[in-house]
Amino acid sequence: MRNRIILITLAVLVWAGLKTIDNLVTGPELLFLLAGLVVMMISHSVWLFGAQDEWQKKARRYVRTTVRKQYPRVRKLLKNKTRVEDGDWHPWVDIFISAKNEGRVIGNTVKRMFEIDYDQFYLWVIDDMSDDDMPEVLNELRKQYPRLRVVTRPPGSFPGKSAALNDALALSKGEVVAVFDADAYVEPDFFKKVLPTLAPEHVGAVQAQKRIFERQTEALPRFQDAEYALDTYFQVGRDLIGGAVELRGNGQLIKRNALIDVNGWNNKSITDDLDLSMRLLINNWDIRFCPQAAVWEEGVTTVKALMRQRRRWAEGSIRRYLDYIFPLNSPTRLSLVERLDTLVFTVYFLVPAVVFLEFSNNVIRFMTGTQTYGSFLALGYFFVLWVSQINFFIAVRLYRGMPPVKAFFHTIAVTAYVYAHWVPCILASFSQILFGKQVSTWHRTAHHGHADEIEVAA
To answer: Which residues are bridge partners to 122 per DSSP?
Structure first.
């Protein structure tokens, strides 16, 4: 109800502002709002691109030799840039994997985790009321790996990943908590790359770069990997400008004292990572991004699974902004850069709603014989798509090493894919918040074992 009231209040304020514009300026008021949002998107993109450029300059200064291989600029940085000043910090790490009915993949995931070149960790697998063979698989693995801990949640436990992680948090004592999905794969030096970034006292959490397994060559997983490349591009930029870096659920490390400070995970959230990011941010904990370290995961392979996953992500993203709208705008909690950065990322959720409203308005105008502004609307939406494709193009060039011509045509398809599913997901999420009786149900993403034979880029 609180989110509904806030969203309605914001809608009324926007409507009042548009009517004020309409009284002062001749023309379609919603288009003025759309134009303003597009300008914000472009300005923010230029800002982040400038940060990437500075990152590249630092890499070139750091490594003078020329590497004539795939994506040379970023490769130099990922391979050579380290933070030796905090290299002596070796905390005890508790790895959490919340899993339900993951008997197909959990065995290989556990084995891969114990290949990590770091001795000071326990691996906690939280069995969230599985009814497949996963409990038997875990019992056999415990005989092989003394540092494997299994938490079995009893029937009737509070549902959801957040509650499962909180159960393990209460039992563990490590200085750092690392969270992975049941299908995750990381290279043996993962902790050696990530922990130095987490070492400074003011840093509460670090997110690694996410990637889709390269064995998944179908169009849908490749499109998702392009989305992850864009996320890396944005996260690197946000990290460098001092913006609001966000956790992504898989491949995230959080200091225990930071988790305790924000009372752990929010059991009622359908996006545990985004909700935790907001609470760390407003409690003055920095979140950093570590592109040198990557976590590979499975991409969803069906449209139905994709839509269900993205509906949850969209609704969780919108709800977390509404849940923390007041502290997010407090100058005592967030810096000016963090507030501006967060504001611009809310625009990406507002644009589809504004376009939909203006399109509906034009349909009504057309049916009533009133002047329409369809050409202006089309122009505004063209700029939105254009900005998105440019960002995708830069991202796959920098972080996937895709050749220019291939990247150009690939990002056309990716941009179409993104707007084809994100726009309805965002609109459905607004509808759920306004008219739904409760928060949508949290669902796990099914995994099919695509990581059984790992093939990752060197």
So the answer is: 94
Question: What's the half-sphere exposure (Cβ side, CA atoms, 13 Å) at 228?
Answer: 26
CA distance 136 to 372: 65
pLDDT for 137 equals 95
Q: Which residues contact 342 (CB under 8 A, 6 or more apart)?
A: 243, 244, 321, 328, 334
Q: How far apart are CA 50 and CA 46, in angstroms?
A: 6
Q: Which two tokens stand for residue 299?
A: 């991409």
Chain mean pLDDT for the chain: 85
CATH number at residue 116: 3.90.550.10
* Partner residues linked to 297 by β-bridges: 212
Separation CA 389–CA 395 (nearest Å): 10
Residues 6+ apart with CB under 8 A from 413: 219, 223
Task: Give the number of other CB atoms < 10 A from CB of residue 388.
Answer: 22
Q: Is residue 75 part of a domain?
A: no
**Backbone phi and psi for residue 131, each to the nearest 5 degrees, phi listed first:** -125, 20
pLDDT tens digits, 239-275 = 998 999 999 999 999 999 999 999 999 999 999 999 9
In terms of Cα–Cα distance, which of 230, 258, 237, 235 is closest to 246? 235
In angstroms, rounded to a whole number, what is the distance separating the alpha carbons of residues 450 and 458? 19
Q: Please report where in the chains the tokens 């134009």 appear, as a residue.
A: 35
Q: Is the pLDDT confidence value at 349 over 80?
A: no
Q: In this predicted structure, what is the pLDDT of residue 30?
A: 63
Confidence of residue 382 (pLDDT cuts 50, 70, 90): confident
CA dihedral 316, 311, 95, 174 (to 10 degrees): 10
Domain coverage including residue 288: 89-302
**Cβ neighbours around 142 below 10 Å, total:** 15
What's the domain count of the chain? 1
Q: Terminus-to-terminus CA distance in the chain, angstroms? A: 50
Q: Does any domain span residue 182? A: yes
Q: Which residues have C-beta within 8 Å of that of residue 360, sequence separation ≥ 6?
A: none
| pLDDT given for residue 442 in this prediction | 65
- Spatial distance between the Cα atoms of 95 and 149, rounded to a whole number of angstroms: 10
Residue 127 in any domain: the answer is: yes
What's this model's pTM, rounded to 2 decimal places? 0.85
Which ranges constitute the DSSP H helices of 401-454? 404-435
Q: Around Cβ 336, how many Cβ atoms within 10 Å?
A: 9
Question: Would you say the C-alpha torsion 274, 280, 284, 287 has a positive or negative sign?
Answer: negative
Which amino acid type is present at position 141? L
Q: Is residue 56 part of a domain?
A: no
